[in-house]
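Hey, resending since the last one bounced:
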Amino acid sequence: MFMFKLHSIAGRIAVGVITGLSIGILLALTMPLYAMPIMSKFSAGTILLFMLMGFTLGLVGMFDRHPLFGFKLNWVNRGIIAGIVFTLIYILIGYDTLALIMQACLERFSFFPRWMNSPFWMLIDGSIIGLIISYTETKFAKEGSSLPLQ
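The structure tokens again:
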């Protein structure tokens, strides 16, 4: 059925890419709420970014401890770190577009406080998305240095 074992690095990568693709498509489908077209370069970049986050989390899932700093890398730590790093890159590259989306969000939805007008608030969202991807990979394909490559 599959060309890989689900409890492997390849399984983690596949689960992560599929989860990232799903989240990216859901985010792209919400673009019309913020006066952005669904089919745009920004939407395509959003989908690719979250697929890459899933791919990276799949690869990093084989580490039990951080190779440089030595702290424990469980699914929570991996998800938060990757989510913040990838979302920070997303914000720095697409700051102007994200600022327009945040402004449209504040105008359309009255429950958001007016002081939340900076795209850097998306770092919280990114860490949550990283947690979702990392949890999904760990739940379905396990984690740790004992995982086989296939």
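The helical segments are 9-29, 41-60, 75-93, 95-108, 122-141.

Sorry for the duplicate.
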